[in-house]
From TrEMBL:
GO terms for biological process: DNA-templated transcription initiation. PANTHER family: RNA POLYMERASE SIGMA FACTOR RPO (PTHR30603), RNA POLYMERASE SIGMA FACTOR SIGD, CHLOROPLASTIC (PTHR30603:SF47). Transmembrane segments: none annotated. It comes from the Bacteria. Keywords: DNA-binding, Sigma factor, Transcription, Transcription regulation. The keyword DNA-binding applies. This is RNA polymerase subunit sigma. Gene3D superfamilies: RNA Polymerase Primary Sigma Factor (1.10.601.10), Winged helix-like DNA-binding domain superfamily/Winged helix DNA-binding domain (1.10.10.10). It comes from Candidatus Taenaricola geysiri. CDD domains: Sigma70_r4 (cd06171). Pfam families: Sigma70_r1_2, Sigma70_r2, Sigma70_r3, Sigma70_r4.
Amino acid sequence: MSDAIKIYFKDIKKIPLLSAEDEIELANRIRCGDQKAKDKMIRSNLRLVINFAKRYRNFDIPLMDLIEEGNMGLMKAVLKFNPKKGYRFSTYASWWIRQYINRALANQGKIIRLPVYMVEKILKYKKTTDELAYKLGRKPLKSEIAKKMKVTVGKLQEIDSVITKITSLEAPIGENQTGQMGDLIEDESAASADSQLSDFMAKEKIDELLSKMSPREREIIELRFGLKNDDKYTLEYIAKKFKLTRERVRQIEESALKKLKKIVKKEERAVKA
């Protein structure tokens, strides 16, 4: 680690953290165009970016580059944060910071030419496989991995297909061929409250997306994909519940998923903006 980075880290540690009340006050001032409030919110959360950037070890992208990308995500979060949603700023900012860092990994990794969402899926696949192998003492079955990831075996095969076409999980990546796809997995020793915040934010993000659906669309999606209690229900069950035909439920589900995809694509464009 260079002296410049050490000095940067040392300076940031001197910046006091914000209380929940501070965040609300600053957020309200930011919405009114207060530049000083915006600067203070950013400065007070720079260490959050560092925590995320440092989790990605042994990858051929300079740490400061990852921090710069994460800072862009932080600035985006500062502009979009709404304290009325009920969660802390670090919870909301974590999602944006991860988006920008993952995009940097995808765009600058030379070999990894994947959408951010697919990079996330591959990371989760690799991590889940390793965890199950350690727990079971053997190579896990596809069905076991799928159950742990809460996806279908078919979806897992899609991820497998992408990995096969792009690169092996252990293939060297990066300009100097010093990293591996597996190196993208977060360093468990660095995981702290921030990782819990990120998990919470993932649920908050799903809730935010579903809030844009009609009540019936939302409930059907929640039942079909086990978003309420992890139990996934059949079209027949949902059809009886809503007193609809099986085909009508399928049509509503398909329409709702198309809406969600449009919303996600819109947000992806916002990230690039």
